[in-house]
Amino acid sequence: MDGFLKIKTKLDNSGIDKDTAELEKKIAKIQEDNAQSSSEQGILQQEIDDYEQLKQKANEYKQKIKDLKAEKEAMFKANPSLAVTADTPEYANVKAQITQMQQKYAQANMEVEKQAPKIEKVAMKLEKIKAKQSQNNAKIQEYKQKIEQINLDKVQRRTRQCGEKHTDTNRENRKDGDGNSRN
After folding, report:
1. Quick one: which of 110, 137, 167, 177 is 20 to 30 A from 9 by CA?
2. What radius of gyration do the chain's Cα atoms show?
3. 64 CB contacts (<8 Å, ≥6 apart)?
4. What is the pLDDT of residues 122-149, one digit of tens each?
């Protein structure tokens, strides 16, 4: 018997497609939340970086004061009479620089102390944002896996239904005119 076999199968995927669309909406919402968190994270990180630079500047002033004091001490050891007279311009310059650096250091240190409580709060908020983003990323992966599983189940169901339809058609074709099967 030569011929063609035509199989028509109609599947109802509305429930499956609805589930997939719902998961995709959840993913989009989470990604939007992550994008907003990322911009806030950038702002908070910049505040922390600025604070760290301020601390570094204060440490540089402190080191410069040490260096200038060492230089002053070396000048004094080389010429003990400088402590009384301060005749040389170099010695007077070093003393003036020490005073200037001490003022800058005190100012920077005061600003560091002033900002410290705020920065602690900023750092905690930043950690919370990072943790939330991590949780969101895990949810996104979970939802993507669910979508993949739904699509896989959908393909398997279609394949099964096509196979069942094909088997049913073959059975009908094997029956002879009396309604008996030819097995």
Report:
1. 177
2. 39
3. 97, 101
4. 999 999 999 999 999 999 999 999 989 9
In whole angstroms, give the CA distance from residue 122 to residue 44. Answer: 6
Mean per-residue pLDDT for 7-22?
66
Segment 35-51 shows an average pLDDT of: 93
CA separation for the pair 143, 97 (Å, rounded): 63
Long-range contacts of 89-96 (CB under 8 A, 24+ apart): 94/68
Element (H, E) at 93: helix 89-174
Arithmetic mean of pLDDT, 17-27: 87
Report the pLDDT value the prediction gives residue 171, as an integer from 0 to 100. Answer: 60
Those residues whose C-beta lies under 8 Å from the C-beta of residue 109, and which sit 6 or more positions away, are 58
Higher pLDDT, 36 or 83: 36
DSSP single-letter state for residue 7: -
HSE, CB side, 13 Å, CA atoms: give it for residue 148. 6
Q: What pLDDT score was predicted for residue 183? A: 44
- Do residues 40 and 133 touch, judged by C-beta distance below 8 A? no
Question: In whole angstroms, what is the distance from residue 20 CA to residue 22 CA?
Answer: 5
pLDDT of 62 over the 60 cut:
yes
62: closest CA among 98, 88, 89? 98
167 within 8 A of 61, measured Cβ to Cβ: no
